[in-house]
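tool_call: predict_structure(chain=1)
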Amino acid sequence: MVRKFQLKNEKGQTFSLMDIENYCFLTEPNGLGYAYSNDYVNLGNSFILNLRVLEQGQISGQLNFLCYDNYKKFVDYIEGSEKLYFSYIVPYKSGSKEFLRDIQMTDVSKTEIQPNGVMSENVIFTCLTLWYATATAIYTIDSNGGDEIRWDFTWDSYFAGYDARDLSIINTGHTDATIEVSIDGQVANPELQLYIENDLYQDIKVTDVIDSYEKFLYSSKEGDFYIKKENTDGTYTSLLDLSVIDFSQNLVIRIPKNKSCRLVLNADNNISRATVTIFVYYKAV
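tool_result:
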C-alpha cells in the first residue's frame, strides 16, 4: 500500500496527483505535519509559555507533467473550482483512510520540459482548515412503512423512533467536531438537540414548516455556518431570523472530544429522510 494524493472540488470533480500520464505526479510533498508558534516570557532563569498558536499549514512539493497539455489541464481545474480540497489517503495497518483539507492554490511555477521529458514545477497550497475525516449517516422510511438505516461511521451509531433521529457519537479527533444536517420535507418545526454524557447541552428549535420537496439545512462548520431552507427551485432562504430562531441559545453545535454524545433530530411530525455528516478534525494524520 502507498499513500495517495489528489485534489477535489465542490462539484465532486477530482484531479489526480498520482497519474503522470493523464494528470500529474506529486513528488517531495512537504507540510503534511504540523507546527506551533510559541511565545515565552522570561521569569528569572525560567521561561514561561505565554502564547501557543497552531501555525497555518502549507502543503508544497513538485508537480511533474509529461506535457504542456496536462499543465493547462491543472490550471483549468484550479480556476474552474470555487472550493478546493486536498485529499490524502493514508495506508494504516488497519486499512486506508482518506483525510481532506480545505486549501487554496498559492503558487505554481512554469518552466520547460526537461531532457528527461518531464516538466517539474514547484507548487504551494495554503491550508484553510485542519485535516478532517467525514462520516455520513442516512435514515430513510420507504413507502411501505419499513425503515432502512445506512451509515459508514466507525463509532457505534443508531437511530430510534420515527419522529426523532438519534445518533450516538464519540469524537476521537484532536478538536471539537462539526456537523451538517439535511432533513427532507415535509416536516414542521425541526429541532436539533445535542446531549453530552446524557445531559442536554444544546437545543436548537426552528419555528417553520419545510414543505414537500424542500429541505432543512444546518451547518456548524467554521466559516460556513448556516441554518436555511432549500426551496423547490434550488434557491435558499435563511432561517436566521428572530421570528424563527431563539438567539438566546448557542446555535453552533460542536461535538467535544472523547465524550459520549448524542445528536437527536426532532420534528412535530415524522421525519422521512435525514442525513447527518460529522467532520472530525486532526492536527496531523
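agent: The mean pLDDT is 88. Proceeding to next step.
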